[in-house]
Amino acid sequence: MDFYLTALLQGLCFSALALGIYISMKIFNIPDITTNGSYTLGGAITGIMLTNHQSTYLILPIVIFAGGIAGALTGLITTKLKVNALLAGILVMTGLHSVNLIIMGRSNLPLISTSSLFSILNIAADPNHNTFWILSVFVAIITLMIGYLLKTDFGIAMRATGNSESMVRALGVDTDRMKIVGLALANALTALSGYMIVQFQAFADINMGQAIVIIGLGSVIIAESFINWFNITNVWIILILVLIGAIIFQLVLALTLAIGVDPNLLSLTTSTFVLLIVSLPRLSFGKAS
Amino acid sequence: MIAINNVHKAFNKGKANQVNAVNGIRLNIQSNEFLVIVGSNGSGKTTLLNLVAGTVFPDNGSINIDGNDVTKTPDYRRSQWIARVFQNPMSGTASDLSILDNFRLAAIRTKAKGLSIGVNDAFKQQVKEKIATLGMGLENKIEQPMGTLSGGQRQALTLLMSVMDSCKVLLLDEPTAALDPRSADVVMRTADKLITDFKLTAILITHNLKDAYNYGNRIIQMGEGAILRDLSGEQKSALKQNDLFDWFG
Ligand SMILES: Nc1ncnc2c1ncn2[C@@H]1O[C@H](COP(=O)(O)OP(=O)(O)OP(=O)(O)O)[C@@H](O)[C@H]1O
Ligand SMILES: [Mg+2]
């Protein structure tokens, strides 16, 4: 049972990432690979600053800012230099690998005796419950902020940008700027997940971001199946489904490990699982028609 | 209102497949003028419209709108004067957004898109009343995604959206090309009514010679990036539909 609690908590840590991927992939229609690098960037900054006894409250805005810069860079490269978005993301991600190594100073930072978000705040006596409540409050605040943003005039312009660029430009929106802001926001959220997971797992690792984009993608795709199934247009319900997607994704992974799948096969399991949820609707439609 | 001074635009410049899409056009369009552009495929009509809208920039020559030199102004800044209806209904509306959100964006075309929520009950009411004037029964569907509507419905809404915010120039590039004859008729009537009611300066590109005959108070024919014929006011009124067919004979 503890196994599933851990999965739930990880799912909550990854909710910010899932929201970030939802913004870049679903709202802007941009496949953004910067994610792998900005996630590790968030983790690396958190790790090194915690080992240097910095306050977790100070680290939080720095992580958000750093992730935002990484995303904005990808946005600038793709809009101003007209480099394909996928390639732009790969370039920034690759560059970030060195940056992250320089920040961390070595490839792994254990955080055994350092304080963290989960040790300085005490909401519940049981440490797992404590972590659960802190993460829940955190995720709730982020979701409320993103939800509000998407409802504003700026948010409408954002959502329209991925939909019909010609229309949005004709309606007075600088779509290049909009994409840069959008990718900055998405990667700030991703870095925030790195911040949370490092404090949750009590270590930072240079390879922690490997294939992290697939976790975000998987979560969003699970959410999308529900969205399409029930024809949901309400922004709040969509965001909550994305959060649920992040948690379901972690639970399924936990389940596969629990039934005895070799941990070495975890990446393979993950991608197979994502392939499955992407293709299942198509396969069943194929039969119907 | 719009002054196009000796504008040239070539694509694939310097290559073997260079196309001189617009070839030194001079055109002055007065306020409240409703200009119809006809011409065969590839004669440069869309390119000329895009030059006015600012989605392509001239190689030389200049463009003025409402007394401002906009030759190098990007499209999203020219939107303070210009509203557009595209040939493809998908281009003029955002499919995944609700009708309401589409209208909200259109209502702030000339303004900043800020961090406040603009869709409130008063706005909903305003949109419902606007849409009701179309008589398509869409006023009760404003929460639906735009993508659930037909092309004709979307074009009609795009037209309405163009006058949600202050608008001086309306650009219509074959707005009815993707529509069945009845929807096309509704869209053209709506356009004509809005142009009159809101005293817009309008440019309509069409291959439908009946529409070219029925609508507008000036007509030009384009060919190979140049203006072949230019008739306005009484000259256009005196024109017969058969004369138009003869232009393409
Ligand atoms: N982006 C582009 N790149 C290269 N060539 C282009 C481009 N846009 C237009 N052209 C060429 O410029 C010429 C004029 O095209 P334009 O689209 O303005 O014609 P049109 O009068 O609107 O034709 P139609 O009636 O078919 O819409 C054509 O030969 C076209 O192939
Ligand atoms: Mg054309």
UniProtKB/TrEMBL annotation, chain A:
GO cellular component: plasma membrane
Protein name in the entry: Putative ABC transport system permease protein
Listed InterPro entries: ABC_transp_permease (IPR001851)
Keywords carried by this UniProt record: Cell membrane, Membrane, Transmembrane, Transmembrane helix
Transmembrane feature ranges: 6-25, 57-77, 83-102, 131-150, 180-198, 210-230, 237-259, 265-285
Localization per Swiss-Prot or TrEMBL: Cell membrane
Keyword Transcription: no
UniProtKB/TrEMBL annotation, chain B:
Keyword Lyase: no
Pfam families: ABC_tran
InterPro entries noted in UniProt: AAA+_ATPase, ABC_transporter-like_ATP-bd, ABC_transporter-like_CS, ABC_transpr_LolD-like, P-loop_NTPase
Keywords: ATP-binding, Nucleotide-binding
MF-aspect GO terms: ATP binding; ATP hydrolysis activity; transmembrane transporter activity
Keyword ATP-binding: yes
Sequence ranges assigned to domain ABC transporter in this UniProt record: 2-249
A GO CC annotation given for this chain: plasma membrane
Source organism superkingdom: Bacteria
Protein name per Swiss-Prot or TrEMBL: Putative ABC transport system ATP-binding protein
Originating organism: Mucilaginibacter pineti
Lineage: Bacteria, Pseudomonadati, Bacteroidota, Sphingobacteriia, Sphingobacteriales
